[in-house]
Amino acid sequence: MLTLNCGVHGNCMRFASPLNVTKSELDEGLAIVETALKQL
After folding, report:
1. Residue 2, Cα to own-chain centre: how many angstroms?
2. What is the residue-level pLDDT of the chain in tens, covering all 40 positions?
3. How far apart are CA 31 and CA 28, in angstroms?
4. DSSP H helical ranges for 1-40
5. Three-class SS state of 6
């Protein structure tokens, strides 16, 4: 999963996952993002 800055001011986050991603892979990636955001 890639995360990219987007939006006019670069203040949004875009998730770019492959089309053949599994639910368990998405859950794992989102758990990593959630952990990172909690640490902020």
Report:
1. 6
2. 677 888 888 888 888 888 899 999 989 988 998 999 999 8
3. 5
4. 23-39
5. strand
